[in-house]
Write the structure tokens for this entry.
Amino acid sequence: MYSLLDYKTEIFKYIYLFFLGSSLGSFYKTIYDRILYFFYSPIRKELSIKQKYYNLFFTPSFCYNCKTKISYLYLIPIVGYFFTKKRCKHCGIPLSIDFLLWELFGGFLLCYLFYFYGLLAFLYVLMIFHFIIAGLIDLKKFFLDYENILFLYIFGLILFFIEWELSNIYYFLLKFFIFLFIFLVLYLLGRGKKFGFGDIILIGAISIIFEITEILIIINLGAIGSIIYILLYKKNKHSYAPLGFFLSFACIVVIIFRPFFFGILTSNSSY
Ligand SMILES: [Zn+2]
């Protein structure tokens, strides 16, 4: 039985988690906008690699329209958007509501996943945001950002060392190389036209993070999404679909709905 005090601590814990999650949402929305701006917009040609990375992490937030520094108030998750009256103080352009949506999503996501996964939820939230960035950039630019996917490899390895015994290393390596091999063959068969090289990099990360059954579901969802996309938006079956976007989206769906369909795959679900 819970006492009133337990309820209070639980509520405070989840308020705190919501704040942390929304801060992560805000951070990743900033990173996403900046990747598009410094690495994929015309300004990329004026910057060296070093300047791009410096700007990505250290430039204070600015208005993309007038380049003026944005008020610190706006940077407070959730409420910041309303404090700034939803507009840039300098040029008056409406500030994107997307920030608020990313923050709300991050907040709810961390609370929800924490309930099922405990501390592992933090790792999953980070993964989900990297999948979101990978998917959205693929959808917009038809390109999977390698540096971003590298983080999914790192998180996947951390997950392996937390969740699995080292004796599972052969199974772990096997599933990694099988899916990498299948995608490499498909890439070569399509002569790089149907499959991008980025899709191979992405499937490597996916096969590190997920179980074999889940990987098969993800690939199927990705393929179905791509086919529907081509049927809706493209003229013929030779057209290209952003497979990376659909794979990333499928990964997020699997992480979020896993507690209901697969049970939690923790070897020691002690928290
Ligand atoms: Zn402005």
Q: What stands out?
A: The first helix runs from residue 4 to 40. Confidence is low (pLDDT under 50) at residues 266-271. The radius of gyration is 20 Å.
